[in-house]
Design brief:
The complex is a heterodimer. In chain A, helix 1 runs antiparallel to helix 2, helix 1 runs parallel beside helix 4 and helix 2 runs antiparallel to helix 4. Chain A is built from four helices and no strands. Chain A is mainly α. The radius of gyration of chain A is 21 Å and the shape is rod-shaped. Helix content of chain B is about 50%, strand content about 25%. In chain B, helix 1 runs antiparallel to helix 2. The longest helix of chain B is centred in the middle third of the chain and has 28 residues. Classes of the chains: A mainly alpha, B alpha+beta. The interface between A and B is medium-sized, with 26 and 24 residues.
Chain lengths: ~130, ~140
């Protein structure tokens, strides 16, 4: 089974972070104390950091790709092909970073805020002090 | 088992796909927005094409075309003597004649596969070739 694209992975990371933040607050309100409300945020921040290092190596795969028309030879023989590969790798790198910027910012900033203020949110929702 | 490849519907599309594999990766990178997902998909398809060629070579060496999955129609009924080799979006269709110990590669296509549409295209292209004026006639 093929791994999903990076955008899909980051959407999953953001979704899991939101669920973790919400679950921490819900747990604090229903079962624990207000101080437990920030734990979900800590999990969300950890997941966001892990996602930074779990990105796909598409630019590397482009630079190292073999050409089946040339019997699997990896090294580009012509300068023009080398430049094309470099351009393609740069385009994927720029797009990856733009995608990471949006999703990981949302995930990590949201997780950090819940980590810091989740206890207040839980207390406001009726968690025991 | 000997493999005979139909030049029009198998060999040429296969060679065209191989020749275009790297170009498709570069084409997917333009524009930059969304490039990672498109390039990733093109790289995966190239890898599948290479795997298809490797499996075809392996099957040719072993002669085990009858062990390939049977090709089925839309009602899931197996087509007689038809087998397919599918890797990712790439599919080769083979007509296997056991009594003559020969397999004929009749079709190579990329998903979405539509055998009836492809057969119609081939029939139409062959009719057009038959109607085309002869270019080898000497000038008056």
């Amino acid at each position: 089974m093929r791994r999903p694209s990076q955008k899909t992975l980051l959407r999953v990371v953001l979704g899991v972070s939101v669920v973790a933040c919400t679950a921490g607050i819900v747990y604090a309100v229903w079962y624990g104390r207000a101080a437990d409300g920030g734990r979900g945020g800590a999990v969300a921040v950890a997941i966001s950091f892990a996602a930074l290092f779990a990105s796909r190596n598409t630019p590397r795969d482009v630079l190292e790709m073999t050409d089946p028309a040339k019997h699997g030879s990896a090294a580009p023989a012509e300068l023009a092909e080398g430049m094309r590969r470099l351009r393609t790798a740069m385009a994927t790198l720029i797009d990856s970073q733009a995608t990471e910027k949006v999703y990981l910012t949302a995930s990590s900033v949201g997780g950090t805020l819940v980590w810091g203020f989740g206890d207040l949110i839980a207390a406001a929702l009726g968690a025991a002090p | 088992m000997q493999l005979v490849r139909d030049a029009e519907s198998f060999q040429r599309p296969l060679e065209a796909a191989i020749a275009a594999a790297v170009a498709e990766v570069h084409k997917a990178a333009d524009p930059v927005a969304g490039a990672e997902a498109r390039v990733r998909k093109a790289l995966d398809e190239k890898a599948d094409l290479e795997a298809f060629c490797a499996r075809l070579t392996q099957t040719m060496r072993s002669g085990a075309f009858v062990d390939l999955p049977r090709l089925r129609d839309r009602r899931w009924r197996p087509l007689p003597n038809c087998h397919h080799l599918t890797v990712g979006p790439w599919r080769g269709v083979f007509l296997v004649k056991r009594d003559e110990n020969v397999a004929i590669a009749i079709l190579f296509s990329k998903a979405p596969h539509d055998l009836s549409r492809r057969v119609g295209e081939l029939a139409h292209s062959r009719d057009s070739e038959a109607e085309a004026p002869c270019d080898s006639e000497p000038a008056p």
